[in-house]
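REQUEST FORM: STRUCTURE PREDICTION
Request ID: SP-0412
Submitted by: Lab K.M.
Chain count: 1
Length (residues): 237
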Amino acid sequence: MTYMLMPLDTHFDIGFGAVAESFKLASDAISSTHSELLGLNSHLPASFLYRHAIELFLKSGIIIFHRKFKLPFDQESPDSEPKVLVNGKWKRMYDVHGLKDLYSYLSSIVSSQIPYLVTNTRCSDWSFSAKLDTWITEIDATDSTSTFFRYPVTKHAENDKNKWAHKKGNFEDMISKIGEGSKPLKAFLVLGENDEITSAFQHDDELSKAMFITLKSAADYLYCFHAAMRWELTGGL
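STATUS: Completed
RESULT:
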């Protein structure tokens, strides 16, 4: 892959794919380190890196297909500033962050070139898997604007409650769920002047773990798709 040794502005996709790889590999490195060394909520930066890698891989694919197959961006040339067709309207690529919008558009232009791809490449199947459809939908439902993993508060207050590993709860409810075979209870209790429990916070990272796995799966999938595009469509550039 010659693009790896060349400046970003010389790349076929103006560097989107290479930067996507960098974000993915950085998250791989963070998530492979023992979590206790990084803090209780290290999933947030690691998740953001995967999420951003996914966005950049999708944008890389859009640029590569436009330039390879001479597809104009609206009324402008394939080498002009990249755009994305969202709900029938062209938008500057730099203004589009929703993964569903990017994925939907990339899927449509890949599908339009299937006859050429099957005949002229070594890849017999260029269709995206149903799993990727599901992963993109799940990620977009949580973070449609690329802000969820970067900021403590977003415009989606209900979703924000799920990003932190510690959640407010009722101590009696926590105790009632303890039984044979149940997971150990990890909780932080705040006591009043008479040692009564005034607040209880439980460590619960099930949702964040599930989302992290989804993000990693989608990033890994698109990492491979990006490699296929560079081998088969850009000559490694």
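NOTES: DSSP finds nine helices and five strands in the chain.
Reviewed by: T.R.
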